[in-house]
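[recover] target loaded
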């Protein structure tokens, strides 16, 4: 039967004018698409709103989409959330998924992961494949729910059975780790292969690693390289990183440094942290050509900005030594502090030294003591010696030579010669102090000294 869009619009309009919510919804769809009638988003929004107000769930969902996109009305995530919630409460699986996603991001509604998990679970129970995957992620990571890898695997499995590649890949990874399922490399490889065939870049990359290792599959470097290339061609940074590793290793026919460098740089440009660090270090060491300190500093800076503590430490050191950047002790302190706050122990020690000296920062012995202690507790012998010195002389703390000895002994136990010298000096100091105390003492039965000679027979 030939489709007549204009006649359909006429009939829907008649029924819509009579108050039929389904007709209003269908007329709005024609107006939205310009199908059989001139496109008019504003009037479409009006009809969707009328139908939604009558409780017609598909109209609620469509109205929410229009508010989310700003079609025919001002864009408003909060208004979109209102209509998605109404449709979700009416049982619409897509609306349940959408209101969950809004709660997960905090768009238009408060960010509440517990609510996100609840709505993802409702949509998942209705067979929504992406919701099944998402609630699986929540159970795997303990997000909004108590961590439960067994339930995570169950939800990944249900989504995987519907052909969702990302669920197949993640279930495969659970089989690799044995988290929530028995460890089974062959089952993992089968699932990853299904996802890779569907074009999932993560699955291609992980499966490539298995071929390199011969884990769950036959050892096949050529297959690994091809999988890495497929994922890399889609711009997947971890695959470029793996290709960089692949070409850096000699597999019998030599290495390919130029191709390795190209892959590492591509991954680094895409924001891959490990690749950024490799590029930075190779520039600093001159591995791919002349040493380029400025390029190294630029790459360390990108990794540092992304939060990598090691890069923050390295960048701080470069600012201290004017390596690739102008000398800037203020910047050095700032980067040492960021690394120290993440637990980077040498950064903690260096920051303490700068706080003591007042290099790039106002001197602050109290804060310095705190960072010396943190570094010392992580086993930095120089920090242990510095902390022992402070206790030995009472700088910023009360004199406590027993505590000083404890820290010197820890550093000496690591073979630090200066600590052994400190211990010897401390022993001499304590021995001298003890001798002075003994000399100043008098026998318990000795009479008090007299102011002048006593005559025999005199008395009171």
């Amino acid at each position: 039967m030939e489709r007549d869009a204009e006649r359909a619009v006429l009939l829907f309009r008649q029924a819509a004018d009579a108050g039929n919510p389904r007709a209003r919804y269908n007329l709005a769809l024609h107006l939205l698409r310009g199908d059989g009638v001139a496109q008019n988003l504003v009037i479409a929004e009006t009809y969707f709103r009328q139908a939604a107000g009558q409780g017609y769930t598909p109209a609620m969902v469509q109205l929410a989409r229009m508010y989310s996109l700003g079609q025919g009305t001002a864009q408003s995530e909060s208004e979109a959330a209102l209509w998605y919630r109404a449709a979700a409460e009416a049982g619409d699986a897509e609306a349940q998924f959408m209101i969950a996603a809004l709660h997960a991001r905090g768009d238009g509604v408060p960010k509440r992961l517990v609510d996100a998990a609840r709505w993802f679970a409702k949509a998942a129970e209705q067979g929504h494949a992406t919701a099944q995957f998402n609630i699986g992620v929540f159970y795997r990571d303990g997000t909004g729910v108590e961590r439960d890898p067994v339930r995570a695997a169950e939800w990944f499995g249900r989504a995987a059975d519907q052909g969702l590649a990302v669920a197949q890949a993640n279930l495969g990874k659970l089989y690799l780790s044995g988290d929530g399922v028995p460890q089974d490399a062959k089952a993992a490889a089968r699932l990853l292969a299904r996802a890779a065939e569907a074009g999932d870049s993560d699955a291609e990359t992980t499966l490539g690693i298995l071929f390199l290792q011969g884990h769950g599959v036959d050892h096949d470097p050529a297959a690994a390289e091809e999988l890495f290339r497929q994922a890399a061609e889609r711009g997947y940074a971890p695959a470029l990183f793996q290709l960089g590793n692949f070409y850096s290793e000699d597999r019998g026919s030599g290495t390919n440094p130029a191709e390795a460098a190209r892959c590492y740089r591509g991954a680094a440009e895409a924001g891959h942290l490990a690749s950024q660090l490799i590029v930075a270090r190779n520039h600093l060491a001159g591995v791919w050509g002349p040493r380029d300190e400025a390029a190294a500093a630029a790459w360390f800076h990108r990794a540092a900005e992304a939060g990598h503590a090691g890069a923050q430490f390295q960048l701080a050191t470069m600012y201290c030594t004017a390596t690739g950047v102008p000398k800037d002790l203020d910047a050095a302190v700032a980067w040492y502090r960021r690394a120290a706050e993440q637990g980077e122990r040498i950064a903690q020690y260096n920051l303490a030294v700068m706080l003591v000296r007042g290099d790039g920062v106002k001197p602050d012995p109290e804060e310095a003591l705190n960072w010396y202690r943190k570094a010392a507790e992580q086993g930095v012998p120089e920090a242990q010696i510095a902390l022992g010195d402070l206790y030995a002389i009472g700088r910023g703390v009360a004199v406590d030579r027993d505590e000083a000895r404890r820290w010197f002994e820890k550093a000496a136990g690591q073979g630090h010669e200066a600590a052994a010298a400190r211990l010897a000096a401390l022993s001499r100091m304590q021995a001298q102090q003890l001798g002075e105390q003994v000399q100043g003492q008098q026998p318990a039965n000795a009479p008090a000294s007299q102011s002048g000679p006593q005559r025999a027979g005199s008395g009171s």
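[recover] notes: Residues 379-429 form one domain.
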